[in-house]
From TrEMBL:
UniProt keyword Repressor present: no
Example GO molecular function: oxidoreductase activity
Compartments where found: Secreted
Lineage: superkingdom: Eukaryota
Segments forming domain Glyoxal oxidase N-terminal: 46-432
Signal sequence bounds: 1-18
SUPFAM superfamilies reported in the protein's UniProt record: E set domains (SSF81296), Galactose oxidase, central domain (SSF50965)
A Pfam family it matches: GO-like_E_set
Protein name, as recorded: Aldehyde oxidase GLOX
Keywords, ordered alphabetically: Oxidoreductase, Secreted, Signal
Oxidoreductase listed as a keyword: yes
Galactose oxidase-like Early set domain segment(s): 441-545
GO CC terms in record: extracellular space
Amino acid sequence: MSAIPFVFSVLILQLLFASQQCHRFLAAAADGRWQLLQKSIGVSAMHMQLLRNDRVVVFDRTDFGPSKLPLPNGKCRNDPSDTALKVDCTAHSVEYDVLTNTFRPLMVQTDVWCSSGAIMPNGNLVQTGGFNDGERRVRTFSPCSTCDWQETPNGLAAKRWYASNHILPDGRQIVVGGRRQFNYEFVPKTITANTFSLPFLSQTSERGVENNLYPFVFLNVDGNLFIFANNRAILLDYMKNKVVKTYPTIPGGDPRSYPSSGSAILLPLKNLKAAAIQAEVLVCGGAPKGSYVQAVRGKFIGALNTCARIKITDPNPQWVMETMPLARVMGDMILLPNGNVLVINGAGSGTAGWELGRNPVLNPVLYKPDNKIGTRFETQNPTTVPRLYHSTAALLRDGRVLVGGSNPHAFYNLTGVLFPTELSLEAFSPAYLDTKFNNIRPTITAPKSMSGIKYGTKLTVRVVITGKVAKNQVSVTMVAPAFNTHSFSMNQRLLVLGNDKVVALGKATYDIDVTTPRSGNLAPSGFYLLFVVHQGIPSKGIWVKLQ
């Protein structure tokens, strides 16, 4: 998106430098493999969501003209409000089938540009907002082989463009912010006030640049919401509409939110049976203050090479700074089944916005949060495909990471430009998928996929491991499938269930006893990918429904 207005006469161009020494990295030998899955799916993947049937819903926007994928059976979208085509017979959304490596066109009725969403407890994708005639729409996609988008007009109380969503313990979604929306609301709408004021969003908005769109939103273990925008964060009791904690500004003061787009994750939640569970947030990359205005003028400032990590549950939380091997803006951060973090996609200079990024960062970086500081980063093998503005990534059930998108242009420009519109899909396979680990890789045989599990109860997971088993290095993890767009994976969450007991049954078969999360504050109800990890090597996941 390049429609960000800016007023030069009121901008104070300045760079704030970190007052705190950063911890340096030790880079290891490159790992990981890349695979081209589809040269073109006809649509650039601006938004991406994995569903419980191992299909991924991808969508772009409608207001740039035709895509490269026709709608089936002569279908056309008739939209008199569309700014590009009133009658459009091409698709702007795709369902990609992971298991068969095939795809089919889907039809959105209104503009989904720069929108948000999450998977509801019943497994449906509920997506909110967009641009123009789509800005107050709520759309639903159900996981089935013939399903298509269903839309609800005026499903939102306010116009939502560049907002962030999160699933709540009661099963609703909260929708936070968006352009010129300094408030939040719930989906489905409640009978109480439709929107709730959030002054923090106006306080973090820089005039003419914003730098606080797509705020990073995470459900804390106490049920409150951690909300990060620009360079700082609050803890919000959304039920009482009350800020219960204000976090310090990240050292250096540089913006990390759109368009100075860094990325952020809630690190894996552990020790889930403890009375007090610790939660940490990691924010990586972004662009120095003033970068957007400079990029508009044709000067592309180097991206930030720092990460900031904070224990959000501490009574006196402080940011701890670390240095990445590669500076990165517009990157994505993906939680892997073994608890490591993959930092992928993005640029080495510039910002988000049309034509405003340069120097593609082709190498992903692995971050190991449990390593000692200074030894956490490992540079991975590079792709050959630049993934800049409007690129996406999502964890798949087999442990690969699906990567798509990149369109830094107002239209589909496939030739004659510095970074063409990218219609391909790739998969990145972390080193844990190497065949040399097959003898220690678990295979889950029970429970069956789609099994229901209850809160705070014993769960037995049966696996086969053909090699020697280190019982103290066996762990069960649960991962919530995330909605990814604009360098943020909404609702991304990993819970480490560990193991209460590992019992050898003979013939390379083992039962692993674990205790499920005790409440919806730790893990909102819904579908999760469940993995068994042995010596850092994960099994293929199975789908379970926590209820």
